[in-house]
Amino acid sequence: MKVRGGNECCIPLNARSNGSYKRSSDGQNVKRYFCKVCKTTYSAATLSPLKWQKKRHLNHPLMELLSYNVSLSSAAKILRVNPKTVAKKLVFLGSVCRHMNQNEIKNYSKINVIQIDELQTIEHTKLKPLAVAIAVAKKERKILGFQVSSMPATGHLAKLSRKKYGYRPDHRLEGMTQLMDDLAQLLNPNISILSDKCPFYKGVVKKHFPLASYAQYLGKKGCVFGQGELKSAKYDPIFTINHTLAMMRANISRLIRKTWNTTKKVSRLIDHISIYVWMHNTQKTPLFAA
């Protein structure tokens, strides 16, 4: 019995059974316990993050829909709930998945080869681009972490972006630095790291992994079906990261390039990607032998 109450003394050793109650949200019988030390009662759901939720049975179906190219409005229609319910659950599930991802990555300490790259998307308009820095384990195909950063528009949109929204700072270096800092606390310092020839990657990698073996490869021409991530060359030395980014574009509705389903708030993009990372690592990739 692993049930624990709200107080430090509310442990199985000090508890005795105290009946049960039927939970109105899903009809399940939940056992109650009595602490013989502090004389309080608690249940198996006292410390659960799902406490007070009325539609908890929709959490996992919604996570699956959001990880298989279904938009928020379409998910609301499929689940027959108000779109506001889906919007609120996106925030809640994003928070829960971020916590689970942080706990899960502790099992990946034996990984010895990773690949890093960035995926570009937009915030409401193409004049406000975003960069998503991502690290993936080469053999295990697990997403180890990500960071979302703002960046200025480039090409023919740069002048129009500055005219309409003013100067937009480039935080890609800070985002990749934060990602490498998080990974440096968990992974072996002697790992191998692969990436494309982005000019600022080398300095960030050498700063956080000075003992790592680092190699950069010239990017190839992208395939149409991969929307730029998958390469047309027969052999791609950083295939794992490019394939993972292509999967994200195919399965996260707001990341598809040609779509009206765009991100309005960066925080919601982070929530959506956090949900996908959990589903990707637990359902879309092979089991990992820790």
Count of spatially separate domains:
2
Structural class: alpha/beta
What portion of residues is helical?
25-40%
At the fold tier of CATH, the topology name of the largest domain is Nucleotidyltransferase, domain 5
> What spatial order of strands do you see in the largest sheet?
6-5-4-7-8
Spatial extent as radius of gyration = 22 Å
Beta percentage is 15-25%
Main sheet characteristics: 5 strands, mixed
**SSE arrangement, N to C:** EEEHHHEEEHHEHEHH
Shape type = globular
Indicate the CATH class of the largest domain.
Alpha Beta
The CATH architecture of the largest domain would be 2-Layer Sandwich
Explain what you see.
The structure is a single chain. The protein contains eight helices and eight strands. The chain has 290 residues and is α/β, with parallel strands linked by helices. The strands form two sheets. It has a five-stranded mixed sheet, with helices on both faces. β5 and β6 (143-150) form a beta hairpin. α2 (72-79) crosses α3. The chain is globular, with a radius of gyration of 22 Å.
